[in-house]
Amino acid sequence: MEYRRLLRPLPLFLIFLFVAVAVVDLVQELRQVPEPPLEIVGSATPRFEALEPVIDFRLNRTDTGVRILPIPELAPDQWSLPERRGVWARSAVGELRLELAVGGHRTLLLECLPASGKRPVRAVRLTINGIGCGEVALVPGWGKYRVSLPEGVVRLGSNRIVLGFPDRDKAAKPGRALLIRRLGLFRDKETDVSALEAARAVLLDVDAEKVTVRRSGTLEIPLVLDDRTDALQMRYRFPSGAGRAEVIVEQSAEEDAGIHDALRKSVNAAQKASGRIRIPLHGRRGRFVLRIQVDLGKLDSRLLLSSLRLVEEGDPTRRPWAANPRPN
Fold first, then answer.
1. 196 φ, ψ (degrees, to nearest 5)
2. How many domains does the chain contain in total?
3. CB 301 within 8 Å of CB 245
4. For the chain: N or C, fewer Cβ within 10 A?
5. Pairwise CA distance, residues 270 & 296, whole Å
6. What's the domain range around 175?
7. Residues 287, 254: contact at Cβ < 8 Å?
């Protein structure tokens, strides 16, 4: 009788042990399943507009596969064509225009080289939108310079930036006053010149199946949806534990017919530093745009995106998410 009492729980223990082993095997198998490729990134040219742009004027220094905004508009009679080291200001002033998504920047950083010779330019006078912002004394050789900007001088939309050279008439070399490599605009009044050395704004690595966003701004990827499209799925991660993002899918401004709506998901590293996002798209068709608005908060933060793809009805890799709401 005593043995029967001892052996009575044994079948339950064996069942529990069998289930535990099966769960462990399933978890290991799921971990070995590779992430789906970045399908929608490979089908269009993404573009990224930085909130704090760093304009690199060197030839062939753009991010491969990503169109970086804003693109400066240079007065052709005042600047040389881009070359390996940058662009030359060729007259007494060098004017450029930038279309910015936001305004309010309080610091301008400049990396430049005065033309060599016995009488190089020794100063740069900065004017933005007709307001004088100060003068910078130049040193021989390459230098990085910081200018504090008056509040409100940089605005949303078109901005006219003029670099003036008060001693240009004394320069020995006609057609070459100053070689500019990079120019940056930042919102923090205390931003250091080292911010010009920050890595590229966006890194697109299709082979590694990931996108790395290294600056605050907006990443846009065009989409074409049809009746088979079920949802958009992606993974995200904030490695430094800081930053937030708004993920939006909305109809393209070029689309005239169809459903005009926008779907949003917000992620915040303070609440969850990594996870998955799924935006249901069932019933939507036509040209849309995936817009990811990123605010990293600090220069050493970044956002990693992987498994960025559109899932179709019946896709074997589709995960058991909640049912898709249909648009009205």
1. -65, -20
2. 2
3. no
4. N
5. 12
6. 53-186
7. yes
